[in-house]
Every structure is written in structure tokens, then in C-alpha cells.
Amino acid sequence: MYDCQHMVDTVRGSSLDHLLQTRLDDHEKRSVLRSLRTIDSGIGPRVLVDGRSVVQLCSNDYLGLAAHPAVTRAAADAALEYGAGAGSARLIVGTAAPHTALEHELATLKQTEAALVLSSGYHANTGVLPVLAGADDVVFSDELNHASLIDGCRLSRAAVRVYRHADAEHLDRLLHDAAGFRRRLIVTETVFGMDGDLAPLADLVLVARRHDAWIVVDEAHATGVFGRHGGGLVSELGLTESVDVQIGTLSKALGALGGYVAGSRTLVDWAINSARTFIYTTALPPPTVAAARAAIAVLAAEPERRERLWSHATRLRRRLTEIGYRLGPSRSPILPVLIGDAETAVRLSDALLARGVLVPAIRPPTVPEGTARLRVAPMATHTTDDLATAIDAFAAARETIHLP
């Protein structure tokens, strides 16, 4: 009996592996196969890859806060006081004081009544959108929204209408044709993570008012980078009162981990009671919460970090353009170097790494077919020498792989 079962399991296993290997082979043929790269250091402006120190131009740690002494010290102190983990979901074991304090500080940063912290930005989007819309509703989603927003829209069971990227007029027409639904939600990133451009928020607000729709925005790439105190693009444009829901992450410019939703007290109370990704997930570890709190304090205390980040982005954008690269119409420190062909993008990335610069190729399905790119993201903590190394590497790599 054992031998027969063993044979069945072996056949089933080999059949599964054969199917998956066929799919992996297809990915490799199309130059979209991914693999994990090990780095032998903490994240920073330089990292160790295969024993070499290379300039890192691809993380979302825009302000360099993940390694800021105040942030790492806060995390270490919290680990000693509260332990490494939270123990359970917050509705079970209770909410630790650091979580409550972080939510108060996030609400202050976002200029909202309240905020709720979840275990990731993905959890925030896939948990909050389904509690705002249902089967009788319709969601209007920008065509370049992040996967977590797309999944949140799907999980809501609402009808989904995709409007052309950053096109408020197209959105207006779609809303005009959707009068029969109970509720209407507009969902968009404020800073688009792969293109670095901005949503036309002021125009979207006008369209929303015209059609009695709610606006939900993802400030993942804006928090810490935009706004006088790093509050995000909504804050910078003075649209806090006009945006119904702000969602974001603690894992990018704040250098930690976790997601949040910010808005009215009623919104947050409803999320506590109905968002499955909050209710059924263990809370963020106290060291992570302490790190995020310290990062918010650094935003206020060291505004020069944002100034350096923008200065580095401006320099890189100008020099890469002068070298002959084609950049997307970014209006943020995210600089998409547009290549088009996935194989060419991989070759360019490899050529850069050989010259001491780490910038992985971004390929489908992360971006649409034919729009493969290198997503260049400077950090406030890069030095002028780091940038010079990167620019020289881009110039030499361009000649090596014979880009047009």
C-alpha cells in the first residue's frame, strides 16, 4: 500500500513540476524570468553584492531612514521593552501603546481625524477597499494602479471600470454612464510607482463632486516625499478635506514596514470592525512600530533630507537625458529609464551591475508589454561620488550594449 501511494505521489509531483517548469521556461524565453539576488548588507545607498560594494539605485527608502540612527535605535529599544512580536491580532491580545501613538502621529501627519495601522500596504488596499464597496457599487480605477489596488477592487465584488491613465475627462465620461449603481468610488495612486508621474488630483476632485463619488488615494510613494512636512501629495495640494480616504505604507520613505488608512474617525472604526486584513492578521511587531514613529519624527526634524532627494533626482534626470536615455514624464524622484524590450532592459541592468551600479530591469507584468524599463530611484543619502559613479556607468553601459 505504501509503495502504491508513493508511486502516485511521485507521478503527481513530477507532473506538477513539469507544468511549472514549462511556464518558467516560457518566462525565460520572454526575458521576464525573475530570481532572487542576495545582498550581504543592510539596505542603503551602497550594498554588498557578491562581495562588491555597488551603488544601489532601486529601493523605495527614498530618505535613507531605514538605517537612520534614531530609527534603528528606536526599534532596538522597543524590542527590549516589548519583545520581537505583537503576539496576536489587536482585537485579540489588545493594542500596545506604541500602536496607538503611531496612529495618532500618522493622523497628524496626514491631517485627518484618525488613522489605522495594518501589517502591510498590500493589506491596507486589499482590506479597506472591500469594506467601502460591494456588489451593488462601481469602482473606477486608474489603468496604472498598483497590483494591491487592483486586487482590492476585485475583492470588493463591485463592478470595476478602468479609466485611461491620469485622464480625468475619460473618468468623467465613465461616471456619467454609471448612474445606476448604488455608490461610486474613484481609486488612484497619487504618485505612480513605476512611472513617477502624478495623478491629476484637483481634476479628479472636481469630477468626483460632479458625480457624487468618493475618492480613495494611495499615497505610498508620496508620503515623506511630498508636502511641507512630508504629509504627501494630498497635503501639498491642500486637498485633505476633499479626499475621502488616504491609504499608504510605512515601508517606503518611512523606512519601516506596514500600511495605514487615514480619514474620519468613522472610517477608521468601520475598518477596525470589518477589514479582514486587520481583524485576522497579527499586529505589526513593536520594534517596527517604534521605527516608523521615529521616522515620522525625523521627517519634521530633518527637512534637508527631502531637499537632497529632490536635488539628486534633478541631477540624475538631467545627466541621463544628456547621455541619450529616454526618461518618462516623471514629476517625482522616481526616474523611469524607458527601454521597451525586456531582453534589452535586462542586458542594460547586467551591464550596469558589472560597472558597480544596481538597477534591476522592470518588466511585464509589472509594467505593460513593450514598456520595460530601469526604475532609477536615488536616495537622500547618496553622495555626489555615488551619483557620478552611476552616471559614468550608464554612459559606458549604453555604448556596450549599443542602445540607439
What does this structure look like?
The protein has a 7-stranded mixed sheet with strand order 3-9-8-7-6-4-5, sandwiched between helices. Helix content is 46%, strand content 15%. The protein is globular, with a radius of gyration of 22 Å. It has 2 domains: 31-60 and 303-400, Alpha-Beta Complex (Aspartate Aminotransferase, domain 1); 69-301, Aspartate Aminotransferase, domain 2 (3-Layer(aba) Sandwich), CATH 3.40.640.10. The protein is built from 15 helices and 13 strands.
Form type: globular
Q: What's the CATH superfamily of the largest domain, by name?
A: Type I PLP-dependent aspartate aminotransferase-like (Major domain)
Quaternary structure annotation: single chain
Report the β-strand fraction as a percent range: 5-15%
Distance between the termini: 65 Å
Numbering strands along the chain, what is their spatial order in the largest sheet? 3-9-8-7-6-4-5
Largest sheet: 7 strands, mixed
Q: Briefly, what CATH class of the largest domain?
A: Alpha Beta
Q: What structural class do helix, strand and pairing data support?
A: alpha/beta
- Work out the radius of gyration: 22 Å
CATH architecture of the largest domain: 3-Layer(aba) Sandwich
- The low-pLDDT segments are none
How many individual domains? 2
Total strand count, please?
Answer: 13
Mean pLDDT rating: 95
Q: And the CATH topology of the largest domain?
A: Aspartate Aminotransferase, domain 2
One letter per element, helices H and strands E, the order comes to HEEHHHEHEHEHEHEHEEHHHHEHEEEH
Number of helices: 15
Share of residues in helices = 40-55%
